[in-house]
Amino acid sequence: MNTILKKLTETLEAKKKDDPSKSYTASLYRDGLEAILKKVNEETFETIIAARQGDNKELIHEVADLWFHTLVLMAHKNLSADDILNELSRREGTSGIEEKKSRANKA
């Protein structure tokens, strides 16, 4: 895993034990899944706005916020960036159309 993702994953796990009054991330964990999903939704919307406005610096900022909150969601569900990277690796070389069709066949 990328060094920054590894470090961030470790930090997010440690934040689960922190005092929510002193840690934003700990407060998200305390507030639970719905609070985390609300932040992911908010950051997704802000990413879309930044992309439409054409300011790449702002887009990078918003995507970083979106990734961060998505990683908080993953950690809340006891998953990590490695789980996502492994899934992306599994899909490498597979047509997006074929990959989507394979998921539909499993449903």
What features would you describe in this structure?
The chain is mostly helical and 107 residues long. The protein has one domain: MazG-like (Helix Hairpins). The protein is built from six helices and no strands. α3 packs antiparallel against α4. It starts with a helix and ends with a helix.
How are the SSEs placed, and which strands pair?
Layout: H1 3-15, H2 24-31, H3 33-53, H4 56-76, H5 81-91, H6 96-106
Structure in a nutshell:
The protein is mostly helical and 107 residues long.
- What's the CATH architecture name? Orthogonal Bundle
What value does the Rg take, in angstroms?
Answer: 16 Å
Question: Mind telling me the CATH superfamily name?
Answer: MazG-like
How many independent structural domains?
A: 1
**Average residue-wise pLDDT:** 92
Overall 3D form: globular
CATH C-level: Mainly Alpha
What are the segments in which pLDDT stays under 50 over at least 5 consecutive residues?
A: none
Q: For the report, how would you describe the main beta sheet? A: none
Secondary structure category:
mainly alpha
Number of strands: 0
Q: Distance between termini?
A: 30 Å
The H/E string reads HHHHHH
Tally of separate helices: 6
